[in-house]
Amino acid sequence: MTLKNDRKIVYLAGFLFSIHLALTSYVNSSFLQSYVSENYVGLVYVLASIVTIIGLLEMPRLLRRTGNRYATLIFSLICLVSLLALSVLNQKIPVILAFIAYFASGNFIIATLDIFVEEFSKDKNIGKLRGLFLVVANSAWVVAQMVSGTIIDKSSYKGIYVFAAVFMALVAGIFIMFLKDFKDPVYKKVPVLKTLSFFRQDKNISRIYFINFILKFFFAWMVIYTPIFLHEHIGFTWDKIGLIFTIMLLPFVILEFPLGKLSDKIGEKKMLLSGFLITAFFALMIPFIKGADLILWAIILFGTRVGAAIIEVMSESYFFKVVNSERADAISFFRNTYPLSYIIAPLLAVPILFLIPSFEYLFFILGAVMFCGFLITLRLKDVK
Hints:
The chain is an all-alpha fold. It has helices spanning about 5-25, 30, 40-65, 70-90, 90-120, 125-175, 190-200, 205-235, 240-250, 250-265, 270-285, 295-320, 330-335, 335-355, 360-375.
């Protein structure tokens, strides 16, 4: 197959994988709330994230043994089985273990897809191709939110996991049938301490890592606590929440491809600064909304994602302009921002929930964290 066709196959895999991810991500916290209390849901994410980080650190070793295609297939099958387990299990401990397997395998797939996209990209077009991949993946999130609320209302949370498993089966099928001629880059054997040194020595790589972490912190905070807040405290039904989330996620589809192309011409710093200011502003507005006004909630959450979409494509473009696909260790470490955020965010939120007078005060904290991202970006230098 040609390079262009291989890229299309990876984009298709990314789309199908993202549908499964979008179907489950915003219901996981509410589903887990059936087995652990609201205040402790975050701790399940902490356990899953610890397992994920350990796995990401070991991923380069696996890639050298199996190659990226087989590794992605293995992770896809684990994810598929864990989703089916979540759809049938009813006991607390088995459900938590299945969730950990699902969460970790999903993060591993994100990292292996990164390697495919990076290998199929040309240096001068990284921003454009990264932006296109993000648009393809994020369009799946919009599609999934259109149907997720209806599925929950008709078949409960269990139905979501069955539906998501169908898409993971398709992803596994892609890696069984296609990309057989993919030539893996030479995955360098780099000790963890040397990887840490690589990030520490280059201040701009360190800054883009922390910028990416703050974005993932925002996503973790929103994914865990926004569905609980809208459903349990504001009183929206799941079909209304699905509609709100569909509108909320549109900026990722509309903005990321043109902004990715723009970053190849003007750099990332200015847009990162604007992204953090926009996200911080709208996050700080959330506690002031008291009623179940669907349009108002959709507008406010849409605003937070305008800023987040800018940050996402700019941070991705910046990092992959300075790190190539051979540095699987660096890519895995960069991707640990997602599971790491699911450790830090709930560990911060759990004690705060016992101290704050009302649940919505969590979003004041989130707005302040996003402003910290603005301060870090001020010291970032654009890639020349």
